[in-house]
Every structure is written in structure tokens, then in C-alpha cells.
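Bench notes, afternoon.
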Amino acid sequence: MKKLILLAAAFMIVLSGCSKEEQPVTNPIGGGEQVKEQEPVQEPEREAVFRNEDIDQAKKMAQQYVAVITEFHGRTAHTTAELDGLHDEMSDKIKNAIAIHSQSRVTRISGTERNEDDILELSASRFSLLTDEATEVYYENINVSELTIPMTYKIPGKYASKEPKKYTLHFVKTNENQVQLIRDGFFVSGTDLEEKDQESVNPFNKDKLKNDLKIQ
């Protein structure tokens, strides 16, 4: 009889343990099912396209570019033929001095660079290169980068103003790792990457412009 009582007691203890294990976990008042918050996945930072040597090269090219332009200070251009000849000469010298992107071009002289006597005002004192402000910009929608260097120019003649006009030299890096000037808004005209990035809405063509321009 005593053995039966002990067995019954042991059986009750086992049942009590099982019932405790099977009890559901209760949540605090007002709480639903507790779910562990997932930590946000951080995307890896994009590696810079322009390395230190590329930035140094772009700064040097910017200085060479301005140096070539200043060679034309004091030149005159009255007729269409003179303007065309001056444009061809300037285009050749700029392209011989620095690398210009294949889809960019050197534009013609405008009234902005001439005084009232049609003399070119391109002295070095009118230019200021802010090479310390060189900045790499990544355009996510078109998946390309460019390096920008600010430049100012004091406009002469009837278009003159108290403050120098601001320009920006835009450099790109080709698939062959060559640094090239793609545009500056002064004498070099080319693809506006910032504008193209804002226009790009079709994800299927994300790399189309990048492949067309053959840049990184």
C-alpha cells in the first residue's frame, strides 16, 4: 500500500512539471505577441572612384586649363571668320593640354569674355581656382561619379558684375582609369550628369548612360 502511495505521488509530480512546461508565455498588459526587432541592414559604403592621385591629377589639369585660356588674353575677334579661327586655335590648345571627354566639345567665344572693344579679357587675375574644395559626387540613379572643382571668373565689359561668376569644372574617370574634363560651363560643354541623374526614372536603364559614356 505504501509503495502505491509513493508511486502516485511521483506520478503527480511528473504531471505537475509537464503542465508548467506547457504553459504559454504571457505578455505584459497591452502587449501582443513579442517579436524581436530586426536590426536594420546597413548597405556597404560605395568605394570612392577618385583616389588621391586622381584628385591631384584633376587639380593639375584644372590649372593647365586656366593657363591655356589666359594665353588668349588681349586677342581680338570682330568678324565671324576671326571668331571661328580663334575657336579652332583655342580648341586645339585645350585638347593638347588636358584630356577632354570624347563626347564633350570646346565652345565658341561669347560676349561674356570680351570687353566693349571686343578684346578678350582672360588675364590670370580674373580667374580663381578653388582646388581645396575638390569634391567627389556620386549619382545613384545613373550609377556614376564625378569630381568637381569650383572656379570663379570676373566678367568684363557690359556684362560685368560686382561678384565673380561661379563655374564648376566637372571631371570623370573612364573605364580605362583616365581622368577627363567633361564640362565646365565656361569653354567646355558636355553631359550634365546631375541633370541626367534627376531625369533618370527607369531602373532598367540605370547603367545605360554610364555604358554610353564609358565612365565609372
